[in-house]
């Protein structure tokens, strides 16, 4: 059913100051910083012990495991980010570090292929007794992903051999056959990894095992049975518990873990948001690879549920910190939400896999929305501070004082005890070239507008395509296109959902696309002679309203320009942002700012209603209302100019 | 230091259709309903087993304890409400039930005086091993309070003898002497009770034991030591825990339980709100009785912190469900708050005890504010549904969908597994006569405007005082005053903080008070000849603004009329209340409504900003703005006309 394929690394290079700066941050800041963390060289951060865990498991060091039960995955996420960066440019010094870690992993891997330092060190007789909570498959998945990435970047076989040995071992442990475990992961991730390993190797064993995990989920009572077998002991509580899940999760655990029904019968995004989108990503990938239309239809239903009912305007998902989870349709509070950075990254993964089966601009739109807002907003401009939770409204005192808002940090943090977001940002940004285009036998689809060079295999032909643009600062994108054959090749450009107008010029002349379908404008030509295409989107900033069913946003407006969501910050507008209303009739004006890499600030008319300063809690109403100018900045840049209030949804008024 | 005394029951009778209806509800609905609950006769409610627990402990029945560890207190709270109601009018049928329960309690009491069915039945060897969590002193306190009330109503000695035996036993268990426990309760309550027992008996042993509990709190490491002794086992978790308190409480447990410092050094209300105000009540009472100025000053500091920084406009306290607790100054969210009914009742207790030492209108103001808004709002008009949590904003879908709002119920509930609020409302309303006046040697202070007859001892004289009023429906209160002596007696009327104007007439002539001090207008006269006083407050409805530091209320206004806070309800204003803004310049008009006992509705001008109905989550801003009339109703009546949205703080706009 796959009609589109993702590119090979050779086919696309990003050349874009905006994105290259981020890629450099990942290379020069995030990866080295994380390397120090993994090796416990940062006195100002939580100890990691992750590399030492490998040493201990491999017999190179004495001691105990330390950290989260899924601590290993921090190493693997780092390795995957390294692999992605090395695909852009080899780096002997970095490879030396990575190779040294790979040696440790090889030694930590057991004879039969098992790899998980917690159980190898601490509880070797308890392997696979708590698949629900103990993340063995999650860690295995991250390792396999890192192996695929590192191998693709370097061609070095060693890590791949560890991955094959591990995957083969997993295939002996899990499966439909008698004597194997008829289970599936508590935290989905292995499915994505096995499908990548299948892509690399062509070995159907991995495809089938991924399929087994996906298709068996929710069809049996595996988690109940293993809970009985381990006498109701919870890993997290280290004690018997009435139910087999963590106490903080207010949902039934079969929803929290997405096995409330067989996956192909699921209609709605539920439970832990990262687990959910990792699973949907694998489902979409599997559906495409196997031509499973029913499974793909389930993916589309869930996709629609997310983007039409459960997604923030920033591309954030997961409305509650309780279980880091989805809640219900249209429940999107702005100041108590979760919107984990990793969940938005997973949503981008999901979109990418959907694009392989269906060329529909809704996927690219959401990729762009999540990428330019929540994902970029997850990291500061310097690349050394991170948000785990991405609120749409933040008042520092309120975050500090109110327990329901304690999870919302008013400023980016150095690192986290559960350090999933920074390396996830790193691997996404490092691998961003893979999200720009897809190709089929006779067509190239352009999903993201990111400057760079493409050399894309289209059937038997090669299409050379150069994008140059300073999008999203402006909406003009220039393409130079040339093919090595005289075959007609289609070039389809995503027309973003937000773009009310666009123009398309071919060699200077405005043209109408041959076809506009599912949000893509298609031009089919023979590109033997180099052609110049100019695509221009109307970047007029605009006010946005939310669906009436989102109670939290009633009587409010947000501001967008292109794919960028804007926000008010205390730095520009003073304290007490909730006193401000915006006049949506008075329009928005642009002002180019040089700071923070350059951005377009937007100015609006509005007013501030201010009550007198008093010692009393409540007094007879008395307020001044003054006309004022509001200054909005791109959401992804918030909290780069000191800690202060921030607000996306602004009260409307005159 | 006490300058004022509370009245004896004989001194005051309420005669007021508004309040007599509530008193009748307590008598005819709440007490019989709870009796059925306690006896497990309601199929539609959680089983209580509380009476059976007494039977089992007394050897009248075989079986196990069932319910919360503090289940006994449900029986005692019922008994106290019964006592209060019997003070108003004896009732042989009700007394028969109460006497039968008292017989069971006598049998459940152990030889040495110990009384707590959980430990007597289930863990007799664990008595007093977990004073922090196990509520033995809490239950004892509620029993003693019920005994005082029932004895005062009936003169029957049996219950009082049980109480003395229990209190004498407690005095042998706790105290400064070697061999006694140097502890104090986890959940404060016994202190209030012992002071009441001292009032009744004059026995200083009880005064001293209350003083011991209060003054020892926070001065030693009792809770840590008992935690060590019981090997870190938590009662709630039934397992070893890292810290000696319940998991849901996000505060250090010494704050949660108010022993972060000696009580007289405490400056701020912290932790579990009900425990806090019960403790402050006892502190204020003790300070007054013992003339302890330092302790009283601490009470005043804490009082000011609550009412100037941590109280909702409705008199609700406790901003978070996490630990049912105070959070921090000015942290008063409207839709995720707790504001437990019982906490406001405790705040009224606290105010009453403060009034004994200091005649300041702030206490009566807050009593009135809490009583007419949160306490009355805690019960429906029919008297058979109750709020535990009292939000200032409620959207049923949001309460259902969002985990941070699950504790906020959009409609009153039948009863609760932890059934503290309904009987607490019952005992307060049954004992309301005790809050209207205080008296000193030469003066009577009028704190609440509730119609009825007073026959008040003032020094050697009796002052007969009749109040007639339909306050708070209107602001006119008529008093007829006559004394049996020719001594000059002061009559001081609280001038509510909200009353911008008032007039005072003596025998038809407007007069100026002899003195206005601390919010009380004083007239000193010789009242031998019957005099007629007319007091009238300006009941003009008014908009209110909140202190600028309360971020949640910025750009919003509330509506009050007299002491009543108003709210918008879906029943009058349609769905999507957050679309409404109110025009504070356009004034408020009154409309008398006959329903729900008759109330004054208030109408305001405003507008509704409505976005188009669409399937999309976010669209280019487009909204209609229509002028509209807003209808506000008294907050205490909300949710009596179906389940729907409610909002106290309304956006301001034109």
TrEMBL record, chains A, B:
InterPro entries: 6-hairpin_glycosidase_sf (IPR008928), Beta-AFase-like (IPR049174), Beta-AFase-like_GH127_C (IPR049049), Beta-AFase-like_GH127_cat (IPR012878), Beta-AFase-like_GH127_middle (IPR049046). Transmembrane segments: none annotated. It holds the Pfam family Beta-AFase-like_GH127_cat. Residues 15-429 form the Non-reducing end beta-L-arabinofuranosidase-like GH127 catalytic domain. SUPFAM superfamilies: Six-hairpin glycosidases (SSF48208). Gene3D superfamilies: 1.50.10.20. Residues 444-539 form the Non-reducing end beta-L-arabinofuranosidase-like GH127 middle domain. Keywords: Hydrolase. GO terms for molecular function: hydrolase activity. Residues 541-651 form the Non-reducing end beta-L-arabinofuranosidase-like GH127 C-terminal domain. This is Glycoside hydrolase family 127 protein.
């Amino acid at each position: 059913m796959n009609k589109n394929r993702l590119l090979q690394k050779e086919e696309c290079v990003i050349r874009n100051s905006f994105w290259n700066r981020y890629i450099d941050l990942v290379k020069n800041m995030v990866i080295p910083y994380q390397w120090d963390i993994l090796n416990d060289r940062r006195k100002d951060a939580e100890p990691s012990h992750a590399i030492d865990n490998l040493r201990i498991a491999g017999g190179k060091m004495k001691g105990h495991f330390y950290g989260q039960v899924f601590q290993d995955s921090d190493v693997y996420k780092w390795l995957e980010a390294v692999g992605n960066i090395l695909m852009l440019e080899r780096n002997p010094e970095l490879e030396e570090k990575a190779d040294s870690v790979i040696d440790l992993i090889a030694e930590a891997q057991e004879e039969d292929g098992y790899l998980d330092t917690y159980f190898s060190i601490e509880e070797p007789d308890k392997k696979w007794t708590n698949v629900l909570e103990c993340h063995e498959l999650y860690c295995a998945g991250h390792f396999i992903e890192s192996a695929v990435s590192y191998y693709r970047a370097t061609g070095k076989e060693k890590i791949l051999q560890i991955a094959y040995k591990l995957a083969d071992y997993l295939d002996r442990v899990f499966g439909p056959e008698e004597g194997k475990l008829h289970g599936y992961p508590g935290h989905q991730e292995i499915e994505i990894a096995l499908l990548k390993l299948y892509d690399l190797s062509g070995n159907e064993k991995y495809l089938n095992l991924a399929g087994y995990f996906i298709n068996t989920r929710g069809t049996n009572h595996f988690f109940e049975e293993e809970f009985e077998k381990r006498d109701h002991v919870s890993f997290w509580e280290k004690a018997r518990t009435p139910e087999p899940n963590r106490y903080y999760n207010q949902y039934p655990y079969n929803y929290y873990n997405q096995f409330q029904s067989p996956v192909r019968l699921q209609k709605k995004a539920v439970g832990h948001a990262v687990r959910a989108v990792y699973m949907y990503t694998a489902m979409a990938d599997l559906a495409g690879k196997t031509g499973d239309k029913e499974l793909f239809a389930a993916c589309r239903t869930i996709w629609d549920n997310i983007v039409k009912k459960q997604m923030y305007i920033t591309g954030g998902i997961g409305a509650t910190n309780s279980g880091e989870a989805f809640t219900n349709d249209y429940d999107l509070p702005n100041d108590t939400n979760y919107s984990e950075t990793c969940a938005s990254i997973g949503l981008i993964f999901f979109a990418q896999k959907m694009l392989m089966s269906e060329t529909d601009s809704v996927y690219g739109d959401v990729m762009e929305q999540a990428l330019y807002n929540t994902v970029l907003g997850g990291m500061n401009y310097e690349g050394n501070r991170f948000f785990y939770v991405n609120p749409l409204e933040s008042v520092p005192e309120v975050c500090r004082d109110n327990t329901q808002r304690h999870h919302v940090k008013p400023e980016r943090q150095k690192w986290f005890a559960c350090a999933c977001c920074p390396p996830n940002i790193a691997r996404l940004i490092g691998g961003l070239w893979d999200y720009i285009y897809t190709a089929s036998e006779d067509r190239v689809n352009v999903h993201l507008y990111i400057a760079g060079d493409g050399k894309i295999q289209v059937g038997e032909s090669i299409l050379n395509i150069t994008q140059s643009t300073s999008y999203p600062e402006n909406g003009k994108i220039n393409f130079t296109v040339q093919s090595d054959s005289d075959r007609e090749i289609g070039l389809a450009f995503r027309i973003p959902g937000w773009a009310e107008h666009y123009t398309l010029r071919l060699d200077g002349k405005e043209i109408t696309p041959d076809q506009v379908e599912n949000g893509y404008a298609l031009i089919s030509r023979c590109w033997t002679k180099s052609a110049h295409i100019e695509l221009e989107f109307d970047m007029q900033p605009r006010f946005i309203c939310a669906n009436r069913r989102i109670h939290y946003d009633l009587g409010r407006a947000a501001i967008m320009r292109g794919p960028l969501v804007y926000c008010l910050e205390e730095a520009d507008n003073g304290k007490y942002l909730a006193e401000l209303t915006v006049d949506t009739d008075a329009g928005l004006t642009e002002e180019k700012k040089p700071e923070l890499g350059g951005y377009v600030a937007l100015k609006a008319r509005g007013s501030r209603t201010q009550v007198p300063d008093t010692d009393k809690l409540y007094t007879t109403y008395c307020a001044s209302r003054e006309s004022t100018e509001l200054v909005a900045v791109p959401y992804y840049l918030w909290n780069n100019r000191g800690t202060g209030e921030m607000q996306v949804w602004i009260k409307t008024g005159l």
